[in-house]
Specification:
Elements: H1 3-18, E1 22-27, H2 35-48, E2 53-58, H3 65-68, H4 77-81, H5 87-90, E3 92-95, E4 98-101, H6 107-112, H7 115-125, E5 134-139, H8 145-153, E6 156-161, H9 165-181, E7 187-195, H10 198-216, E8 220-227, H11 230-238, H12 242-245, H13 250-263, H14 280-293
Binding site for ATP: 30-37
Protein name: ATPase involved in chromosome partitioning
Organism: Acetomicrobium mobile (strain ATCC BAA-54 / DSM 13181 / JCM 12221 / NGA)
């Protein structure tokens, strides 16, 4: 067996022993900071590195993930919750190792199902383990109940803000809402998007880290930043994720660095490791529990 094949088998064995798919909620607290763009381009970066990634469009009011790929799926998560479709029937492959799971409405409907149907739904969701190592949940803007619920249920929270003062304030507001609702402090990563410079990004991150530590007792991990880049706007205009439109632009390089930082993709020997989490069943059970409490 080749060394590359052996490494692949060892990574998969490690994943089976450690757990299942790892879930990340991507949130911002404010619209217009590039959260969905980050989710999409981060997924594509992970896929190119061999990490099978599923993006769940968790913006239950206004789906944007599929639009960024130029796709308009006919079915969504609501059809799975109602029993009309299986999860495999609504999952859309957009690139090797990258899938979209259209969200749609019906989140609260999960909590209203009887126990038998909830168990059946969780079993249906467990099929995602066959498709991905990572589940990225792209949420809506603002500090809404559904966003906090997703954040608490996930293994990790990825917070995105721009240098705009209101965006920074709302980012902290969302973090505070999550900390007050969660039984334990979550694993949280911070990303500064549309930064003018490395210095600006680090200064903003430092202020947020200090505030989160002193007032919320949360360790806010600085995952990186994305520099303001004209290629991003150009990619949006033509409806193509910027990491595909121009993989060598500054924004693309920044996203790749963020992927390696958050997902710990390389050890000292340069062998990529598959992220592992508590699995999709555990995520669903936590999600249902939070929905029933609210």
């Amino acid at each position: 067996m080749k060394k590359k094949d052996q490494a692949f088998e060892l990574r998969n064995l490690k994943r089976k022993i450690a757990g299942g798919i790892k879930t990340y909620t991507v949130a911002s607290g404010k619209g217009g900071v590039g959260k969905t763009s980050l989710s999409v381009n981060l997924a594509l970066a992970l896929g190119s590195m061999g990490i099978r990634t599923i993006v769940l469009d968790g913006d239950l009011g206004l789906a944007n993930v599929d639009v960024m790929f130029g796709m308009y799926p006919k079915y969504h998560l609501g059809h799975v919750i109602s029993g009309e479709k299986k999860l495999s029937e609504i999952l859309v492959s957009v690139q090797e190792n990258v899938y979209i799971l259209p969200g749609g409405t019906g989140l609260q409907d999960m909590a209203d199902l009887d126990m038998t149907k909830q168990v059946k739904l969780i079993e249906e969701f467990s099929s995602l383990e066959e498709y991905g190592n990572v589940l990225l949940i792209d949420t809506g803007a603002g500090i809404h109940r559904s966003i906090v619920v997703f954040a608490i249920a996930s293994d990790s929270l990825i917070l995105v803000t721009s240098p705009d003062p209101t965006a920074i304030r709302d980012c902290y507001g969302l973090l505070k809402a999550v900390s007050l609702s969660a039984a334990a402090s979550p694993e949280v990563y911070l990303i500064i998007n549309m930064a003018k410079s490395n210095k600006e990004a680090l200064e903003i991150a430092s202020r947020l880290q200090y505030t989160a530590r002193d007032f919320l007792d949360i360790n806010l991990n600085m995952a990186g930043y994305i520099l303001r880049d004209p290629h991003v706007e150009e990619a949006v205009k033509i409806g193509i994720p910027f990491i595909i439109a121009d993989p060598n632009c500054e924004a693309s390089k920044c996203v790749i660095q963020i992927a390696r930082k958050i997902f710990n993709l390389e050890n000292e020997e340069g062998i990529e490791e598959v992220p592992t989490g508590r699995g999709i069943k555990a995520f669903c059970m936590r999600l249902l529990r939070q929905l029933q409490l609210r």
